[in-house]
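Subgroup meeting minutes
Present: P.N., E.W., G.H.
Scribe: E.W.

1. P.N. recapped why we're keeping a running log of single-chain structure predictions: easier to compare across weeks, and new members can see raw inputs and outputs side by side.
2. G.H. added today's entry (173 aa).
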Amino acid sequence: MAFSMGCCFATLFIPIIITSFAPAVMAAEEFKVGGNEGWRQPAANETEMYNRWAERRRFHIGDSLRFEYKNDTVLVVDKWGYYHCDSSHPISVFKDENTVIKLDRPGPIYFVSGEPDHCKNGQRLMVEVITLHPISKSPPSLAPSPSSSAGSFSFVPELLSLYVLLFAASVHM
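Output recorded in log:
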């Protein structure tokens, strides 16, 4: 089956190529911990509420967490403190009832309530902070990289996806 990549076909895909190299700018987000529920001791049947809340979100360096609470505290703890509800050696302690913590490093960050029974009942939170991959401002090279073996090429994933899309579209023309 022969196919032609005429002017119309190429015109359709040029915007995709241009936008795939545009730098992505992500504004920092502020997340209210627990949503409308805030930072509170979970009910007996809600002990996983903060884990579920965190699993539905992506946290990046620069984002922040807002803890809203009454008659409680927020402690930043290490992994041991989180898993054992041990608040005896916190990294940081907050008591202002409206705490905003900026996420400034990648990796897991652990929070617990300063009330021992609250933590044991599920008032604890672990967030995994991720970094954004740096975006190259120049188009990727399709030439073999000097350190690669023969026949290997360096691809940007979006460009590879575009080639697959172009190939699939050309087969159906």
